[in-house]
Amino acid sequence: MDNKLIELFNDEAVKETIRNKLPKLFRIAELESSRAGKIGMEVGSMREKILVALLIYKFGERNVETEIPITEAEVDVKLFNQTISIKTITGDGRVKLVWTVDRMSVLRFVETYEPHCDMLLAQIKWDLSNEKLTKGIHPGGLFLIPTDVQQRVFNEIGRECYLTTPKEGTNPRGVEFSKDGLTRLLEDRDTKCIEIIWRRSEFVYDPYKRWVDLWRES
Question: From 3.40.600.30, 3.10.129.10, 3.10.310.30, 3.30.70.100, which CATH number describes the 4-200+207-216 domain?
Answer without folding.
Answer: 3.40.600.30
